[in-house]
């Protein structure tokens, strides 16, 4: 058990250093090809994913209501694809905004 705690402590120390380094990374503006790809491929795919997710959500309601997981399924199937499609700046990845 002591060995496990020591390994866990070392991993926590090293991972905290990388978190600060990732905050320092400067976000770059998207290039024109990235924006075109986003506009003509990813956005239409996001619309399809939002529509399909809504249909799957409705079908899954009888199973999610008794378990109390309606909110989680709504977020994953409807809200996340909607935000990816309509709330994100053109050309940016989800990690960039």
Could you walk me through the main structural features you see in this protein, from its secondary elements to its overall organization?
The chain is mainly alpha-helical and 97 residues long. Helix 2 packs antiparallel against helix 3. It is flat. Helix content is 77%, strand content 0%. The protein has helices at residues 2-23, 32-67, 70-86. The model has no long low-confidence stretch (mean pLDDT 84). The protein has a domain at 27-86.
Fold topology:
Blueprint: H1 2-23, H2 32-67, H3 70-86
Report a brief summary of the structure.
With 97 residues, the chain is mostly helical.
Relevant terms:
mainly alpha; 97 residues
Q: SSE order in H/E notation?
A: HHH
Fraction of residues in β-strands: under 5%
Q: What is the subunit arrangement here?
A: single chain
The number of E-state strands comes to: 0
Number of helices: 3
* Amino-to-carboxy terminus distance: 41 Å
Helix content: over 70%
Q: What do the pLDDT scores average to?
A: 84
- Spatial shape: flat
Radius of gyration: 20 Å
Largest sheet: none
User: Low-confidence spans: pLDDT under 50, at least 5 residues?
Assistant: none
Protein structure class: mainly alpha
């Amino acid at each position: 058990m002591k060995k496990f705690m020591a390994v866990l402590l070392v991993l926590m120390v090293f991972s905290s250093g990388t978190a600060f380094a990732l905050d320092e990374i400067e976000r770059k503006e998207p290039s024109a090809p990235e924006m075109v790809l986003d506009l003509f491929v990813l956005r239409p795919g996001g619309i399809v994913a939002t529509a399909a997710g809504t249909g799957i959500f409705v079908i899954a309601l009888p199973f999610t209501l008794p378990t109390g997981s309606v909110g989680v399924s709504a977020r994953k199937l409807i809200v996340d694809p909607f935000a990816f499609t309509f709330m994100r700046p053109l050309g940016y990845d989800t990690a960039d905004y």
